[in-house]
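name: query_chain
kind: protein
chains: 1
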Amino acid sequence: MAKESDSKLFAFLGVFLGLIGFLIVLLTRKTDKYAMYYAKQGLVIFIAWVIVYIIGTFLPLIGWFIILPLGSLAMLVLWIIAIINSLSGAEKPTPLIGKFAEKFKF
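structure:
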């Protein structure tokens, strides 16, 4: 049971801390399939959030009032879904980003 709870903890950290969480899991739990599964999803959410921020910041008006608020809200919802899934004990792909995370090979 301790191993399963450790995997859930590292999966949670991988999603919750974004890039830092991914690096923690990659450096400490690379062989833990469950933790890496969610760490990759956390990395994709982080990258998507950065892209939304960059596009939303540099496009006047449309970016500031539509892309940035709606994109940030969407990323927040996906982040919360990924956190809940990481604590579930089952590998569930996060909507929209799960397919991209599976393409990473580490």
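note: The mean pLDDT is 93.
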